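step 4 of 6: structure.
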Amino acid sequence: MTFAQLIFIILAAMTLGSAFMVVTSRNLVHSALWLILALFGVACFFVFLNASFLAVAQVVIYIGAISILLIFAIMLTRRVAQDTAPPITGNWFWALVTSVLLFGVLVWMVSLWHGFQSTAPALSRNVDPLRQLGQALVSPNAYAIPFEVASVLLLAALIGSIIVAWEKRLGRG
Amino acid sequence: MSDPINAIRIWLQGLLLSWGLSDGVVAVILAVIGVVALSTFVLVMDILLVWVERKVVARFQDRLGPNRVGPFGLIQPIADVIKLLLKEDIIPRGADKFVYNLAPILALATVLLLWAVLPLAPTIFGTDLSVGVLYIVAVGAISTLGIIMAGWSSNNKYALLGAFRTVAQLVSYEVPMVIAMLVPVILARSMGLNDIVQSQSIWFIVMAPVAALIVLITSIAELGRAPFDLIEAESEIVAGFHIEYTGMKFGLFYAGELLHALTVGAIVSTLFLGGWRGPGAETYPILGVFYFMVKAFFLYWVIMWIKYSLPRIRIDHMLNFNWKFLTPLSLIVLVITAVLDKLLPRSNMWIYAIGMLIANLLIIWVTLQILRSRARRERQRVAQPGPIATPELSMAVLPSSNPRQQTTPPSNPA
C-alpha cells in the first residue's frame, strides 16, 4: 500500500464517518458541524485529484455559504438544544429499501463506466487547469450557454428575493 | 548569502539525502520544517504585535502605554502571556465542550493558514497556489465558522447575539470584497499571488485605487474592528462571541484578531502595494521580506488609525453601507476595469496605467457627486419640521382629506 492510498483511506473514513454522524447525531447544530467536516473531506478529495479550483470553490460555497446559512437557520429555531425527538421514525423500513435500491442503482451505473479500468493521464506541467476552465465557461463550443442560463437563473432569484423583501409603500395596499 | 532561507533548505536537503532517505520522505520532512518555521515566525511576531498595538493606541489617546517591563515595555507581552496562562480555565455550565474548545483554535489557525500563500519574497513563500485569491476568501469563510461556533457553544445569549451579528456582517461584506479582489486578478491575468506581485511593475493601487479602498474597508469589516466592531460591541452585548472565554482561550481570540489585522495588511499590500517589490528585492530576496513587512505594518498602522479614530456604526447603517454603496460600487469598478482592460494597449504599461487611473478618478468623482446630492436631500428632509400631533392632523391621517402630506411612515426614520 502506497502513502497516497493510506491518505485516501483516512480521508474516505473521515468523510463517510462524519456523513454518518450527520444523520445520527441528536443535536441539530452538531449535525451541521459534522456536515461541514464531510464537505471538507470532499474538498480534500479535490485537492487529492489536483483540482485546486474545485477544492477551493467547494470550501467557499459549501462551507462558507451553505453551511453557515444552515447553522444560522438552526440557531434561529426555538429551543433547538432541548429537542429530543427519536431519530428513527415509523417509516424506517421503506426509507431503508429506497436508499439501498438507489445506492445499488448508482453503483451499477458507475460500474458501467469504462474509466475505472484506465489510469488517468498525467497532467503536463504547462497546462493551467484554471485557465482552461475559464475559457471553457465562455467559449461557445463548450459551456457558454449553460453558464449564461445559470447566470440568468441566479439573477432571477436575486431580483425575486428583492421583490419579496420589498418594503410596502404606505397607501398602496 | 542573499537568500538564507533557500540556502538552508538546499543544505538540509543535501544532508538528509546523504543520510540515505528517499526523495519523497525528504520532501515531507522539509515541508513539515517549513510549516513549523513559518508559523513560529508568524506567532512570535504576534506576541510582538500586542506591544505594538498597545503602544500605538496609547499614542493615539495621548498616553505613554506599557513602559515598565523591559526597555520601552518590550517584555510586557511576555508578562501578559504568563498572566493569561495562569488564569483559571472556566467552561460555562451547559456549554458544548468540544465545540467550545475548538472555536478559539479555529480562530487563530485560520489566520495562520492565510500565511501559506502570501509571498514574503520572490523565492520565499509557503506555496504558489494558482487560486491564491480564492483561497484567501475560502479561509475567511472558515474563520467566520470559528466565531459562530464560539457564539453558539458558550450557552450565553450575548454570545449568540454576537454570532448573529457576525453572520450578518461577515457574509455581507464578503460580497464586495470578492468582487473588488477580482480587479487585481484582471490586471495581473492570474489568481496566483506570486503572479500578481510579479506583474506589479506599476503598483496596482495606481491602476485600481477604488478597488484597493473597497478591499481595505471590507477587510476591516471582516476583522470586526472599529468602526465595524458590532460583533463585540461592549456597550450593547458585553463582549459578543468571546464573552465566556477565559485565560489562554481568550488569549487565542485576542492574538488571532491582532494577527488577522496584520495579515489583512499583508494581503492588501500583496494585492495592491506590490508585495515584496522594492529596490534590490529581486537580487537580494531577504530585502523583499523587509519591504513586505514594512508595507504590511504600514497598513496595520492605518487599520489601527481607523480603529481608534472612528466610532462604531449602527447595524442598519452597516448593512446599508454594504449593500447600497460598496456592492454596486465594486460591481461598477469591476465592469469598467474589465472593459478598459480589453480597450487599452497592454504593450505600453504606462498608457494602460494612466487610462485605468483616469477611469478610477472619474468613478470617484461621480460617486462623490451622487453622495453629495443624496446628502443634500437628506439634510433638507431632516430640516423640515416634523408633524406635531394635533386633532386636525390625526384627522388628516385618514385617507379622506389631504392624502400627500402624511405619507412618510413614522416607523422609518432613515
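step 5 of 6: annotate
 - The mean pLDDT of chain A is 82.
 - Residues 52-76 of chain A form the longest helix (25 residues).
step 6 of 6: archive
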